[in-house]
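Q: Sequence in, structure out?
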Amino acid sequence: MKIRVMAVAGLAFMLASAVGAQTKFTGTVTCAKADPSTSIEVGDHPGHAYTLAKGSCTWGADTLIAGMKITSDTGVETGEMSATKVTSTGSRVATMENGDKMLVSVHDSSPVKDGQPTDIEGAFTITGGTGKLKGIKGHGTYKVVPAADGSASVTVTGEYTIAPAAAPKAPAAKPAAK
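A: Exactly. Output:
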């Protein structure tokens, strides 16, 4: 009896560990020039400006999240630029091949050379999702190589977990008839 209890407890522990395990992923992403993109000079120092941009990206076919391909990735970022550095914060929505969505918060910074960001490095947090991605959480890093035409190549490394769906609640018991 003790061996059977231990075996069941061990199996339950292994299953619980598998559910909570981080799934690692990497990806290559190609981003088009942001459209729209605007910059407003502050006027206090040369090169000091605030920025706002919306863009879309295409993920390589080899990147899968919960076994699904990402078919579109759009986002909006705001930033602050000086003559030597730019920092930005934004939100992205990745749509999977089945229509489910993954919600991501991004933060990055880079040095500025000749008025343009270079060597952009950032971190992201997966904050939620819909459908099969409900309960997804994760994080990672990315590196952006900007091109002269405003497009960019991005390398992403991260990990995620998806919380198991809650079991449906049993209906309330009816009082016994007298």
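The radius of gyration is 22 Å.
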